[in-house]
């Protein structure tokens, strides 16, 4: 199953150093039965884009959490796409987002299919979204507009052999 796993650039560096994304369980996003039912007219590519977008939103929250912990990393959302065995993925109806899944095992580097990262042109908007996230969570429409502005930027696609270039 193709699973989109939210990450950050420092997190991606840890994946490369350790040889796996973990520890498990990991929250990811995938084309789930609930997503298919909700997005009736979409084809697989459209549904995967929805899952990727959900993972990018989660990456934004990871960046915000890092900032709250004093970690200053580049304001670029990162999503890792991995092909994980179906039996390691738990899809539950109690999960909030329709595309959210739990990966029950660490994901080895060999299972990574690609990495999706904001272009450097997106940094200012992602930075603004990180700052606006708390107010958006409290219902501030202007702050939500700022957070949504980060989604105006498409994530760039990188092959796994290009990961080292992203980390330099």
> How many H/I helices?
6
Q: Sheet with the most strands?
A: 4 strands, antiparallel
Strand order within the widest beta sheet: 1-4-8-9
The number of distinct β-strands equals 9
Strand content: 15-25%
As a whole number of angstroms, the C-alpha radius of gyration is: 15 Å
**Overall pLDDT:** 92
**Would you list the SSEs in sequence order as H and E?**
EHEEHHEEEEEHHEH
Which structural category fits the helices and strands?
Answer: alpha+beta
Low-confidence stretches: none
N/C terminus separation = 30 Å
Give the overall form: globular
How would you sum up this structure in a few lines?
With 168 residues, the protein is an alpha+beta fold. The protein contains six helices and nine strands; from the N terminus they run βαββααβββββααβα. A four-stranded antiparallel β-sheet has the order 1-4-8-9. Strands 3-6-5 form a three-stranded antiparallel β-sheet. The chain has a two-stranded antiparallel sheet with strand order 2-7.
Molecular structure report:
The chain has 168 residues and is α+β, with helices and mostly antiparallel strands. Helix 3 packs across helix 4 (123-137) and helix 4 (123-137) packs antiparallel against helix 5 (141-150). The model has no long low-confidence stretch (mean pLDDT 92). The protein is globular. It contains six helices and nine strands, in the order βαββααβββββααβα.
């Amino acid at each position: 199953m193709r699973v989109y796993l939210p990450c950050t650039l420092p997190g991606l560096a840890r994946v490369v150093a350790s040889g796996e994304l973990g520890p498990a369980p990991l929250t990811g996003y995938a084309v789930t039965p609930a997503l298919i039912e909700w997005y009736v007219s979409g084809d697989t590519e459209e549904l995967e884009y929805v899952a990727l977008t959900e993972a990018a939103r989660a990456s934004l929250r990871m960046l915000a959490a890092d900032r709250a912990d004093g970690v200053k990393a580049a304001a670029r959302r990162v999503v890792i796409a991995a092909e994980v065995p179906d039996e390691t993925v738990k899809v539950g109806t109690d999960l909030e987002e329709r595309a959210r899944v739990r990966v029950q095992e660490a994901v080895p580097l060999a299972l990574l299919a690609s990495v999706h990262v904001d272009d450097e042109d997106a940094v200012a908007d992602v930075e603004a979204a990180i700052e606006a996230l708390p107010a958006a969570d409290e219902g501030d429409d202007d702050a939500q507009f700022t957070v949504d502005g980060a989604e105006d930027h498409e994530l760039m696609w990188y092959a796994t052999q290009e990961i080292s270039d992203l980390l330099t």
